[in-house]
Amino acid sequence: MNQKASRTAEGPSQNLVLTARGVVRPAHCDHMEHMNVMWYTARFDEATWHLFRMIGVTPSYMRTQKKGMAGVQQDTTYKQELFAGDLITVWSRILEMRERVIRFYHEMRNEETQAVAATTTLTAVHLDRVTHKACPFPAEILERGHRGMTGVKKP
Predict the structure, then answer these.
(1) Tens of pLDDT along 2-60?
(2) Are 122 and 47 in contact (CB under 8 A)?
(3) Residue 78 — φ and ψ, nearest 5°?
(4) Residue 96, C-beta contacts closer than 8 angstroms, at least 6 positions apart
(5) Count of helices and strands (H, E) across the chain
(6) Which of 41, 73, 99, 109 is deepest in the core (most CB within 10 A)?
(7) Which domains does the chain have, with CATH numbers?
(8) What is the spatial distance between Cα 47 and Cα 12, in angstroms, rounded to a whole number?
(9) Taking the model in full, what pTM does it have?
(10) For the chain, first and last CA: distance in Å?
């Protein structure tokens, strides 16, 4: 593996940065009265776009440069139920950044108890929206991603 093109961070439980806050609404709950899996995914997706913004993959960048991001793999673990009224936070970090690929981690917590409710690891590719093919990240985004792998530690 080319060390200049790729770096991998140590395990996901360190150096997390806050990427989302929210509350579980009654409409997010299923017939078993806990938050439905589709809402975990939605919250993780919202956090993803905030994490991307931190490295320069912003809506304006994607519009002006005709670039985009596409998820290619996601692995989610549900650890504890969340119920209507629970306050949640999502903490994130970049695990790996390569020329065209980013792999990152999100941890959803019950803000009141600090219990981890769910975790997910995702892999996404940087796309040229004209050719619909993976393309290299600009050097400055790649560098920010590498710096983000040692981001801010959680409280």
Answers:
(1) 333 333 344 456 689 999 999 999 999 999 999 999 999 999 999 999 999 999 999 99
(2) no
(3) -100, 120
(4) 6, 7, 8, 9, 102, 103, 149
(5) 3, 7
(6) 109
(7) 13-148 (3.10.129.10)
(8) 15
(9) 0.86
(10) 34
